[in-house]
Write a structure and sequence with these properties.
alpha+beta, 2 domains, two-stranded antiparallel sheet
Amino acid sequence: MTEINHKLVMAEADKMTATAGVKVKGNKKYLMVKDRVEVFRKFYGLNLGIDTTVLHIDDSVVRVQAKIIDANNKVIGSGLAEEVRASSNITRTSAVEVCESSAIGRALSSIGLHGGEYASAEEMLNAVKKQEKIAIVEETIKETKRDEHPLDDVSFHPRENWEAWRDINMQTLGKYKFIAEFQKWIAANNEYLVEYSKTDNDSYQVFKQFINTKMKGCAE
């Protein structure tokens, strides 16, 4: 195995946080677990592994431990997580998955792959829950007919999850090739954009910059 400069790996995580980080309590940003794993695999491939173990599971609580191990099963990082099933709608049905993601996130943080400060247990769980919510919305889109987009459902309002709404629309806007397409979208979503800017201006500014950048590369 070619020796890897781990400082470069941590720097990559820091860089990705600026564009892909999830905002949690205290306006801090942390890199989502899937992105941390991506950085981890990009540099280390299959030379290092992530081992997870369910330490406890019952109808109320799940506890998981994650370890970062080398080819000789030497532990070079670890993380623990606990999830209460009744804490949210997501954990009522997916407590093990959420808990495992949180433990992996903690383990990767222990070796410096966090893209910011070392998250507390509460902050990490909140970040993981946001990630899970986004994943659920995206999966719903995949399973929905093309003419039945869930964001068009009158019962849904973006304020239920502004960041999920932003990320989904970034995927849509990223496919536009003409300024007129952006203008039409902005006009249709102006009310949402105003409320978004008042609710979470930092996140809104990221979205606004994304739109402006994409529009500069479009045809009239």
